[in-house]
Amino acid sequence: xxxxxxxxxxxxxxxxxxxxxxxxxxxxxxxxxxxxxxxxxxxxxxxxxxxxxxxxxxxxxxxxxxxxxxxxxxxxxxxxxxxxxxxxxxxxxxxxxxxxxxxxxxxxxxxxxxxxxxxxxxxxxxxxxxxxxxxxxxxxxxxxxxxxxxxxxxxxxxxxxxxxxxxxxxxxxxxxxxxxxxxxxxxxxxxxxxxxxxxxxxxxxxxxxxxxxxxxxxxxxxxxxxxxxxxxxxxxxxxxxxxxxxxxxxxxxxxxxxxxxxxxxxxxxxxxxxxxxxx
Amino acid sequence: xxxxxxxxxxxxxxxxxxxxxxxxxxxxxxxxxxxxxxxxxxxxxxxxxxxxxxxxxxxxxxxxxxxxxxxxxxxxxxxxxxxxxxxxxxxxxxxxxxxxxxxxxxxxxxxxxxxxxxxxxxxxxxxxxxxxxxxxxxxxxxxxxxxxxxxxxxxxxxxxxxxxxxxxxxxxxxxxxxxxxxxxxxxxxxxxxxxxxxxxxxxxxxxxxxxxxxxxxxxxxxxxxxxxxxxxxxxxxxxxxxxxxx
Lengths: 279, 246
Ligand SMILES: Nc1ncnc2c1ncn2[C@@H]1O[C@H](COP(=O)(O)OP(=O)(O)OP(=O)(O)O)[C@@H](O)[C@H]1O
Ligand SMILES: Nc1ncnc2c1ncn2[C@@H]1O[C@H](COP(=O)(O)OP(=O)(O)OP(=O)(O)O)[C@@H](O)[C@H]1O
Ligand SMILES: [Mg+2]
Ligand SMILES: [Mg+2]
Hints:
The complex is a heterodimer. Chain A is of the alpha/beta class. Chain A has 10 helices and 11 strands. Chain B is globular and about 50 Å long. By secondary structure, chain B is an alpha/beta fold. The interface between A and B is large, with 60 and 59 residues.
């Protein structure tokens, strides 16, 4: 495997049991990731979050994951036990979950949680840690970080929760960041500022990024390459700058469904869901 | 007549003042957007209208009746809220079916089965999801359960907090078309929080812009479509939102 290849995924399948049978929700997808920004867009329920979670081996039974290859920097993830995975999570691969406030610890202050994720891997003095935490919150454009570190997760707004999660996942400087809808409740200007912080780590540390998002404008501008998923499969892959020329009818349908700033249509075009495969 | 009237509303969490002197009216049948800075108090305003913010001064009226500081069940039949955080607002041990039938049982509505099937179809959830728990659904599927729960009592007023931010753009388009159709057919009133200005352009008549707990501007959708704003902060939001895929 070449030096800059961070991640290699071959024939990844994820399935869950139903009353009758197992159903496959990710149906044999393959992709590679270098030190680059890969966007994953696509249908709701197409398997984007599960794909992200499977890289960290976070799919619990009765869910089942198989792959011909799942390797990260020459480490065979499939062969790692739970203890080994715990060492990889956070330090080497971090994931920003889709429901940030749900994945924060409800009984621990924001400041304590971010410090913990820093402390796990560094020996810094208490005041150094506090300063790093405040700086990181400033970087993700949190107003008044001194107040916010004392709050509990239920006391922060949706967009603040997202930025806190980003701060927490970036502070240990992972090699690979999987970000699942990390900025969906931020307005476009704050979003751009927060993504700049991620960019810094990519250029300084050579971090790789998988950005899962419904925002096609954002991914086409920010990422290098895009995968489009539908019903558990990758239906199209393109350079991010070429998204406008996408060929697959599903991708074309998505592009057509985006409203514009000067939107005067009475109805937005949707994909004909009657064509959806029966489950 | 006004569906919602806010007058000099100051909301507090403990000693911290979150909103400062917020006043606006929303007419019956109007679709009104609340946009602005993250952490500026948008969700807090919606929660106060629902009776979920314990401490506030000023007045809140819904259909001309002053709101109290608590929750009441009659109010739920008139006004429902779609919360910003779908995972947090769904009970982890309740299936989609239990979540949707609960309000029907409380309000003694009998044709439960039909209503549940109908509302699931209208938000584009396949009936095979009916007996799933929240953790067995994707983010966008959960968001649609929360929208279905708000619609099932057929309220006249909907408070929508980022209702489509977890949906792919095609499902978003379906939900937005549904909101538009319901408004046309049943005269619903919407108060919608969103950071997505194109969504406002499609669905709303007017928008209020809020920053650091204060209202900076209330304007019409025509002004938005033309990018014609009074306040510098709104101009900035507009300028940043102009992205198209080219
Ligand atoms: N524990 C589970 N049991 C059964 N099915 C599941 C489970 N978890 C997820 N699924 C199903 O797997 C499919 C893929 O889910 P996933 O969360 O990866 O979707 P997604 O692409 O991230 O969608 P969204 O954009 O809506 O977040 C969905 O149809 C979902 O209902
Ligand atoms: N329960 C609470 N206790 C203390 N402070 C709170 C509580 N809930 C919210 N806040 C504070 O109130 C402010 C406004 O939060 P709110 O959720 O209304 O913001 P918002 O405008 O909806 O932001 P976003 O767009 O990020 O969702 C924030 O500073 C937040 O920290
Ligand atoms: Mg997801
Ligand atoms: Mg909010």
